[in-house]
Amino acid sequence: MTSIADNPILHLKDYGQSVWMDNLSRDILQSGELAQLIESRDVHGITSNPAIFEKAIAGNAIYDADIEAGIRAGKSVEEIYESLVFDDIRNACDILLPIHNASSGVDGYVSLEVPPSLARDPDSTLREARRYAEAIQRPNLMIKIPSTPEGLPAVEAAIRDGINVNVTLLFSVQSYIDTAWAYIRGLEARAAAGQDVRNLASVASFFLSRIDSKVDDRLDAEIAATTDADRQARLANLKGKIAIANAKLAYQEYKKIISSDRWQALAAKGARVQRLLWASTSTKNPAYSDVMYVDELIGPDTVNTLPPNTIEACADHCDVASRIEQDVEAAQAAIASLAELGIDLDQIMAELLEEGIDKFIQPFDALMDALVTKVKQLSPA
């Protein structure tokens, strides 16, 4: 077993990458597990989503006392839900605040998502982002807003208002470019109003394993549909490669954006870059390395948000080196090959976005249903 002293995960920061954890529950806050992970695994941030909270809250007795208090106070199920989640977010923010302060606001963030049902409603998304920020009142809170075309105006407005934003559910390179410019427009509007841009932070959460899972299924279908050995070989050669290739191309776009005159003008005012965050980093295919989405995407101004199992896998056997700009031509060739083989990556990305929204709506609805049941169970007869 790797010792803490030579633990690979501790060296990601040497190459400009921060480790955040894709998990949050009251258990890890109260048990001291989060504090331990900060110390032993260099965890410098937390992301949450409806699926994580559904897993944390449903069927967990640790929340019962607060649910009963909400019942006595006459709160609705929705109000009880928010009280539970907001308390966990505040406590996580407090635990990570020393990291936030020590990093001058670069790290130490806790992300909370607006209700996923609002992904196509920019006005309601912005209203909830403002309300969440006002209710939680922590400088290291990030509000997660989906990168739908309708969501990006809310991103821009939230940044203008001084709210830290984690733009989530990014799949295509173009959606990343659109997200980056929404961030820049928000900062420009804020600067034009004479407000400070120095203390704002944002990340663009680029999803990975879901891309490979969907593309690989399509590749397998195409392989099964042809008897052309050359075509089968070309299709098979792309399996497990598209998500990382896509991410590397997004990083090249990031470099172009931060070298632009518009970004440089904001940087001169002290604005922070919007870092690319690698999300959906647990490897779904057991034939692939369980740390492939870490090893291949290490580089400056990036964040990797890892579920607990991947954190431990990386601590044990990550091969840490700066690779985000290696094999960029091969990445371009892989994406081009998909098109040459008749596979429409843009269509796949659009499908992934819709599926991603649904994958957050379903657990959110399930959590609310579970809370309704629990409120009935805990209510006095």
Describe the structure.
By secondary structure, this protein is α/β, with parallel strands linked by helices. The protein has a single domain, classed as TIM Barrel (Alpha-Beta Barrel). It has 16 helices and 8 strands. The chain has an 8-stranded parallel beta barrel with strand order 1-2-3-4-5-6-7-8, surrounded by 9 helices. Helix 4 packs across helix 5, helix 5 crosses helix 16 and helix 9 runs antiparallel to helix 10. The chain is globular. It starts with 16 loop residues before the first strand and ends with a helix. The model has no long low-confidence stretch (mean pLDDT 95).
Give the topology, please.
Elements: E1 17-21, H1 26-30, H2 33-41, E2 43-47, H3 50-57, H4 64-72, H5 77-102, E3 109-113, H6 122-136, E4 141-146, H7 151-160, E5 165-170, H8 173-192, E6 202-207, H9 209-225, H10 229-237, H11 242-258, H12 261-267, E7 275-279, H13 292-295, E8 302-306, H14 308-317, H15 328-340, H16 345-378
Parallel strand pairs: 1-2, 1-8, 2-3, 3-4, 4-5, 5-6, 6-7, 7-8
Helix pairs in contact: 3-16, 4-5, 5-16, 6-7, 7-8, 8-11, 9-10, 9-16, 11-15
